[in-house]
Specification:
Shape: globular
CATH class of the largest domain: Alpha Beta
Oligomer: single chain
Distance between the termini: 34 Å
CATH architecture of the largest domain: Alpha-Beta Barrel
Radius of gyration: 20 Å
């Protein structure tokens, strides 16, 4: 993997970059849609591939449970199995295991858990997590880590962060010699600045090709999250990509870019689309509301996506009321287009030296 910073914003920590991996170029800052099970929910591949997303995030935990790593390996790897010819990033599954506290047991050896599908028992160690992601054949893979809940006491957070660092070393050893896959370290530390700094510095010494910030957007609120981002990025190498995991609200992305983040993923744009809410240049629009019943305007007059070119708010509201899946698909496509164009706007603003002004202008509608 090669990464270079092309331009830094003078008034903030925002940076324009270029990542090249496996002959695919990624302009950063970049948003990566979430295809948990090997597909982006309610986004069929033809329309999705026409958008300018160079990286898709898939989840190794879910794919490990179903359909299984061996089946995907037999298919020729995850790219061939799902029909995706760009980069794939896989999460190690640490966050999913964190989210089912009643079904798992964590120890320094790894995590023993029960499948949310059928209750079967499984064990994932740092070495297993790497083997699973190698079997899937992803381009960018993540170290196994423990996502610290919020709130958490300092003693617990310190012990957990220490374990995450030990797991990172084990992941790096297990991954050694693997070509074509870039392994990212994950910074934890809860809401304790000194733990975040210590974790970032320790991972920096391990010399990963990229670094992720985990354990954020878990209920701590925007102010604390932004403080932890700023604390962490200040300790990370300037010549490596920085990935903020699971954060994708438009306002959070702009604020995180201002603090030096290069990569993002989040289910929010597609989840909102499936529930009847659209991102627009004038703020969020709940299409299912009665106000849209006889509104024949597009979702966003400034958008040129397929949905906005051909369909009205009233029609999409009708589809939701009728229980038609096409309503979810049209809104999902629009929201993904919105994210794609927003990231292009961010990159253009950094290149032009107008990032702060564009950020204020974008956030004015009240995101």
């Amino acid at each position: 993997m090669k990464f270079k910073v092309i331009k830094e914003d003078k008034a903030s920590g925002a940076r324009l970059g270029e990542l090249i991996h496996n002959r695919i170029k990624v302009e950063t800052p970049v948003f990566m849609p979430v295809g948990t099970q090997g597909t982006v929910k309610a986004a069929y591949h033809l329309s999705f591939s026409r958008l300018d997303f160079p990286v898709l995030l898939c989840n190794s935990y879910h794919l490990y449970l179903r359909p299984g790593v061996e089946l995907i390996r037999k298919a020729g790897g995850l790219h061939k199995f799902i029909g995706w010819d760009r980069l794939i990033l896989t999460d190690s599954g640490g966050y999913q295991i964190y989210s089912m506290s009643d079904l798992r047991d964590i120890s320094p050896k790894g995590v023993r858990f029960r499948s949310h599908l059928d209750g079967s028992e499984h064990f994932i160690s740092p070495e297993n997590a790497i083997a699973i992601q190698q079997g899937l054949g992803a381009d960018i893979i993540m170290c196994f880590d423990e996502c610290i809940p919020y709130p958490a006491g300092e003693k617990y957070a310190a012990s957990s962060t220490s374990m995450t660092l030990e797991w990172a070393e084990r992941c790096k050893r297990a991954h050694r010699g693997q070509r074509g896959q870039a392994l990212f370290g994950i910074v934890q530390g809860g809401m304790y600045p000194h733990l975040r700094r210590e974790c970032a510095l320790a991972l920096k010494k391990m010399n990963f090709p990229g670094y992720a910030l985990g354990g954020l957007s878990v209920g701590e609120g925007a102010e604390k999250m932004r403080a932890m981002i700023e604390t962490t990025t200040g300790e990370l190498p300037v010549d490596k990509p920085r990935y903020l995991m699971g954060v994708g609200k438009p306002e959070d992305i702009w604020e995180a870019v201002a603090r030096g983040i290069d990569m993002f993923d989040c289910v929010m744009p597609t989840r909102l689309g499936r529930s009847g809410t659209a991102y627009t240049s004038e703020g969020k629009l709940v299409v299912k509301n009665a106000a849209c019943a006889e509104d024949f305007r597009p979702l966003d007059s400034k958008c040129s996506c397929y949905t906005c070119r051909g369909h009205s708010r009233a029609y999409i509201r009708h589809l939701f009321n009728a229980g038609e899946v096409s309503g979810m698909m049209l809104l999902t496509l629009h929201n993904l287009t919105f994210m794609d164009k927003m990231m292009a706007r961010i990159r253009k603003a950094i290149a032009a030296g107008r990032f702060d002004a564009e950020k204020e202008k974008f956030l004015a509608p009240g995101y």
